[in-house]
């Protein structure tokens, strides 16, 4: 059971991509402030057709409605490992992972295994969604770089972020029947291991972030907008100028909650090190350089930090005591 009293709401900037190359400098500074303080903002006019969300939601419902024996064919002890069953992240959470850049092939492997036959429509939709998300992630990072310094997008976008990859997680939250009275955690407090994460959450809401002073604040669903949050890799790359905030999902209704979460990450072999310009003259470095995959492995191999539960993060892994 959790207390309602601690919760509050948060006014976050909305990045409007109608004219991505003409964003006012006053907006860039409010975006940067939000990334420093909250690590969260919204993006709108992102160009992703609404019916893609609807179709993915409908089709994934078919999958989540299958029996658990069938779903476990993709489970943690199978070779595909794309399905995370209940009781790993939380009793109420299950998810399906689809990896890029070939979202078609990645989902096809899972669907073939589940249904014993190929259903190309769903793989096509996921490929379309993945392509949109890859482009959108790059556009968003470009704008974040601009907000960090004039011309930084030209200096760093291709050289540092040119080999980023993405994967998505389709999540089905099944709350207990008494969730209306006692809200429960659908996904516990964690930080993301990405550069940035882009979240579509359904109309039920429930995503919350933790402020620097430890308060839980609601990230409300905002019509036609997606939620963007800074991940650990970007926090390290920016020498802590951008914040990878702890967040969680609470369930307050007895209805299932759907979310579609896209993680955009550095390539495994990349050495993550903040460029001198980003650190700034006279400022101490707060992380030592590390290879991206080593951090992912560190998180996965840590009992406390296993899956999405927070235990250790990039600060514990690469933080310097300054
Ligand atoms: O389901 C959501 O809205 C967010 C999930 C999340 O934070 C994650 O998968 O990392
Ligand atoms: Fe997350």
From TrEMBL:
PROSITE patterns, alphabetized: FE2OG_OXY
Keywords of this entry: Iron, Metal-binding, Oxidoreductase
Domain Fe2OG dioxygenase: 164-267
Iron among keywords: yes
Family annotation (InterPro entries): DIOX_N (IPR026992), IPNS-like_FE2OG_OXY (IPR044861), IPNS-like_sf (IPR027443), Iron_ascorbate_oxido_reductase (IPR050231), Oxoglu/Fe-dep_dioxygenase_dom (IPR005123)
Top-rank lineage group of the source organism: Eukaryota
GO molecular function terms listed in the Swiss-Prot or TrEMBL record: metal ion binding; oxidoreductase activity
Residues spanning the signal sequence: none
Pfam families linked: 2OG-FeII_Oxy (PF03171), DIOX_N (PF14226)
Family in the record: Belongs to the iron/ascorbate-dependent oxidoreductase family.
PANTHER family to which the protein is assigned, alphabetical: 2-OXOGLUTARATE (2OG) AND FE(II)-DEPENDENT OXYGENASE SUPERFAMILY PROTEIN-RELATED
Protein name according to UniProt: Fe2OG dioxygenase domain-containing protein
Lineage of origin: Eukaryota, Viridiplantae, Streptophyta, Embryophyta, Tracheophyta
